[in-house]
Amino acid sequence: NVTVKPPPEPSPLRKARFFKANMRILVTGGAGFIGSHLVDKLMQNEKNEVIVVDNYFTGSKDNLKQWIGHPRFELIRHDVTETLLVEVDQIYHLACPASPIFYKYNPVKTIKTNVIGTLNMLGLAKRVGARILLTSTSEVYGDPLVHPQDESYWGNVNPIGVRSCYDEGKRVAETLMFDYHRQHGIEIRIARIFNTYGPRMNIDDGRVVSNFIAQAIRDEPLTVQLPGTQTRSFCYVSDMVDGLIRLMEGDNTGPINIGNPGEFTMLELAETVKEMINPEVKIIKVENTPDDPRQRKPDITKAKELLGWEPKIKLHEGIPLMEEDFRLRLGISRKN
Ligand code: NAD
Ligand code: UDP
Ligand code: UDP
Q1: Does 265 contact ligand 3 (Cβ within 6 A)?
Q2: Which secondary-structure segment (H or E) carries 197?
Q3: Boundaries of each NAD(P)-binding domain copy (predicted)?
Q4: How far apart are CA 151 and CA 154, in angstroms?
Q5: What pTM, to 2 d.p., does this model score?
Q6: Is the complex ipTM higher than 0.90?
Q7: Counting beta carbons within 10 angstroms of the beta carbon of residue 11, is it exposed (0 to 12), middle (13 to 18) or buried (19 or more)?
């Protein structure tokens, strides 16, 4: 007769420390811009334990410094293109560089992160029975021929362009999510995130809001890429995090657009930043990069109806919050 040993009891230490925590959440890319704000919000709920995995390509430990050492928090240096073994209830899968200059820097790595990284997180979700949310992007709509973009639009994407590692990568990631859902019954959630801004963005990451704010603070000309009439719609990061958590907690797989429908041309954005931060600064026109989408604005009907979500922070309220953070990090205070 073989005696089977019963599984060990959780250690008294673990029980004492974690008796309140009943949800263990993995955040990939949690040291990045959106990820670290998401971690802040998740950590505010004492029922949550949070594990962050990040390879620090574009993220930083600094973004998480307030949580390092906290008993409900763990930070692991790990690349999602490698197998990961952890036991969790939910996975927020954000790991992927989001700024064009970073995702174009090593395009093969970007596509591996999107495809192999997402496959690994789905394999993990399957093994442990976790629910998984993917942060997809409005870039899946490419240079859209439909305006504003709703989730039923299939997009207009160049499969062989310099942005393809990112936007086609995310399209495959969405396909993998739905195939694991249909084939293996994995609980999935897909958010299509539109341009997001706020404190902790990399100062020199080349994205338009961070560029203009840093330039205005440094007294450098604001660089509007030609033609300047192209549009984007900017969502403040706290609104984004609320939308992501609602999507994860709700019953809908998505894809669901999460973004702010307030649409601006890049020239209008430059004028706004100039007026709010530094009326003396010049606005100049510079060359654009290939395949730049001409217009982008989310249709958020689904988010409103299915998640009861809509953004609260307007651009003119968000810009000063980001300016404050950038001034602190750049060490340049206001002149007056
Ligand atoms: P970010 O670059 O600040 O964060 C991404 C994080 O992922 C970083 O901490 C980075 O180090 C990490 N990472 C990258 N590759 C990794 C890998 N192979 N293994 C482990 N970690 C890795 O970008 P963000 O703006 O916070 O974007 C987060 C997510 O949201 C991304 O998936 C992005 O595609 C998506 N998204 C963002 C925006 C936006 O406007 N910020 C728009 C659409 C979609
Ligand atoms: N995987 C992982 N962590 C896990 C389980 C799986 O990283 O806990 C990875 C695994 O390395 C594999 C991928 O997820 O490459 C897909 O896993 P799945 O079980 O779906 O496929 P298979 O291993 O059968 O190819
Ligand atoms: N852009 C600009 N000046 C800059 C950086 C970007 O005019 O210094 C423009 C860019 O051409 C694009 C828009 O701003 O039309 C948004 O670019 P970003 O890289 O922030 O994000 P994208 O939406 O392209 O991923």
Answers
A1: no
A2: strand 196-197
A3: 26-321
A4: 8
A5: 0.94
A6: yes
A7: exposed
